[in-house]
């Protein structure tokens, strides 16, 4: 029984991202904050997480990552990922990057 519930949850989670009536492929409609975030992301994150996919770093577009974790990781770094201080990525830019990654994942 428990296994059935788990499977149902996984199924719901898998179907949750496709919005009915909207094309799944094609350009993503980013919000203004998401677009600003994309620009900042391309400047500082893209080289290791290309387009949100895995590169030197892991993929960021296929799992739910809480905003505080993205901010913490960006500010403090981890392993091969360098830390970015406010001089390299401003507070609002980091917020925009979090928005961008959320919209990227939801569109995928
Ligand atoms: C020089 C390469 C590099 C750059 C630039 C970089 N990262 Fe990373 N990132 C990594 C690596 C490597 C890891 C895996 C670290 C580990 O777990 O040891 C990682 C991990 C992460 C994780 C954790 C993912 C997970 O699945 O737990 C997040 C979130 C993240 N990066 C966000 C960012 C953001 C946002 C930026 C831009 C501000 C950025 N990264 C820039 C290399 C990079």
Give structural notes.
The chain has helices spanning 2-15, 32-44, 67-76, 91-107. The longest helix has 17 residues, at 91-107. The protein has a single domain, classed as Cytochrome c-like domain (Cytochrome Bc1 Complex, Chain D, domain 2, Orthogonal Bundle), CATH 1.10.760. It contains 4 helices and no strands. The protein has 108 residues and is an all-alpha fold. Mean pLDDT is 85; it is low at 8-18. The two termini are 31 Å apart. Bound molecules: heme C (HEC). The site of heme C has 22 residues, from helix 3. Heme C binds at residues 44-45, 47-49, 56-58, 60, 65, 69-70, 73-74, 78-82, 84, 89, 97.
CATH class: Mainly Alpha
Shape: globular
CATH topology: Cytochrome Bc1 Complex, Chain D, domain 2
Q: Helix fraction?
A: 40-55%
Spans of at least 5 consecutive residues with low confidence: 8-18
CATH-wise, what's the superfamily? Cytochrome c-like domain
Number of helical runs? 4
Number of domains as seen in the coordinates: 1
- Computed CA radius of gyration, to the nearest angstrom: 16 Å
């Amino acid at each position: 029984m428990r296994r059935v519930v788990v499977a149902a949850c996984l199924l719901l989670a898998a179907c949750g991202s496709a919005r009915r009536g909207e094309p799944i492929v094609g350009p993503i409609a980013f919000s203004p904050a998401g677009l600003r975030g994309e620009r900042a992301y391309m400047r500082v994150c893209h080289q290791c997480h290309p387009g949100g996919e895995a590169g030197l770093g892991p993929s960021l577009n296929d799992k739910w990552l809480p905003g505080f974790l993205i901010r913490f990781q960006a500010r403090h770094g981890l392993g091969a990922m360098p830390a970015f201080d406010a001089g390299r990525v401003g507070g609002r830019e980091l917020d925009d990057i979090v928005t961008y990654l959320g919209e990227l994942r939801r569109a995928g």
